[in-house]
Design goal:
This protein is of the alpha/beta class. It folds into 2 domains: about 170 residues, D-Maltodextrin-Binding Protein, domain 2 (3-Layer(aba) Sandwich), CATH 3.40.190; about 150 residues, Periplasmic binding protein-like II (D-Maltodextrin-Binding Protein, domain 2, 3-Layer(aba) Sandwich), CATH 3.40.190.10. The longest helix is centred in the N-terminal third of the chain and has 15 residues. The radius of gyration is 20 Å and the shape is globular. The protein starts with about 25 loop residues before the first strand and ends in a 5-residue tail after the last helix. The relative contact order is 0.19. Bound molecules: fe (iii) ion (FE).
């Protein structure tokens, strides 16, 4: 077992590895140990390459910036296209070219220049009170801003990456002026000031504060695994938005190789491993997300909800609209 330092006092764990392994790869991860350790353990078993992980909840970008060329990190794991794009835009990643990655990860789910790659997909779903919402009234993200939803919607902060990603998607499809009308309409429909995490929105529906919310799909699984939260999850219907047109907005968790990676060969081996069918299947099972690789078998949980139309827009385009989305949410005073 190798021990690594804490980031700013935050939780830390390490991967159990054979101490005699000569080869290694160093990872900075925003993903929790329980979500990635099973795959990393098998990677080490299969290749003999030790994986050292520094887990953090925040501060990764700052740390990479301040470490510069001295960083020990070879790879970065994080959620959200925004965070992957931020690392790239700070000039802290390098282009990776790999036939395996290109074959296993759809073009829309990776950076055009190879600076980041998606590993799993998360659907931004709508949940609606089973008692109070007619499902025909809320079929799309556009419907969140409709008159029928006046005073009935709850979301988290408009500054959060998940809401920025959603707004960036609306800009990509509707253009800035129409997207802003939507954002203002959504804001006008809020039942309360944006607050809390995704699960807190479902709790608010259970408690009658609002009728409709937008959340990432895996929180439904998380709530069903927590006895206190089961009633929250059971009070709502799950809606995959925009099935009649472009499909449900999907964000990713993903990986990037750092600009100054010292173990780049091993880092590439780990990247390719995580994109393999075997790891993709495991990955999706342990974290409740959808595999990016087409044809990989879904977990029982994911199969329970069945197939749905996913928005296949290139995430590079979503990343490019994020700056505009951040300013837009400010302009509509979303959080005020
Ligand atoms: Fe999340």
């Amino acid at each position: 077992m190798k021990t690594v330092k804490l980031i700013a006092g935050l939780a830390l764990a390490t991967i159990t590895v054979s101490t005699f392994a000569a080869e290694e790869v160093n990872v900075y991860s925003y993903r929790q140990p329980r979500l990635i350790e099973p795959m990393l353990d098998i990677f080490t078993e299969d290749t003999g390459i030790r994986v050292n992980v520094l887990y953090a909840k925040k501060g990764m970008l700052q740390r990479l910036k301040s470490e510069g060329a001295n960083t020990p990190a070879d790879l970065v794991f994080t959620v959200d296209i925004g965070r992957l794009a931020d690392v790239k835009n700070a000039d802290l990643t390098q282009a990776v070219s790999s036939d395996v990655l290109n074959a296993n990860i759809p073009d829309s789910q990776r950076d055009d220049g190879g600076h980041w790659y998606g590993l799993t997909q998360r659907a931004r779903i709508i949940v609606a009170s089973k008692d109070r919402v007619n499902l025909d009234d809320i079929l799309s993200y556009e419907d969140l801003a409709s008159d029928k939803m006046k005073g009935r919607v709850c979301t988290r902060s408009g500054k959060h990456a998940y809401m920025i990603g959603l707004t960036a998607m609306m800009i990509a499809y509707h253009g800035e002026p129409k997207a802003e009308i939507w954002a203002a309409g959504l804001k006008a429909n809020l039942a309360r000031k944006p607050q809390g995490n995704d699960r807190a929105q479902v709790k608010a529906i259970k408690e009658g504060e609002c009728d409709v919310a937008v959340i990432n799909h895996y929180y439904m699984f998380n709530m069903l695994n927590d006895p206190k939260q089961v009633p929250w999850a059971e009070s709502v219907n799950v809606i995959f938005p925009n099935q009649a047109d472009r499909g449900t907005h999907m964000n990713i968790s993903g990986m990037a190789m750092t600009k100054y990676a010292k173990n780049s060969e091993n880092a590439l081996k780990l990247m390719e491993y995580l994109a393999s069918e075997k790891a993709q299947k495991m990955y999706s099972e342990v974290n409740g997300e959808y595999p990016v690789q087409a044809g990989v078998e879904w977990s029982d949980q994911l199969r329970m909800w069945g197939e749905f139309k996913r928005d296949e827009i290139d995430l590079t385009e979503i990343a490019a609209n994020r700056g505009t989305a951040i300013k837009m949410m400010d302009r509509v005073a979303y959080d005020n």
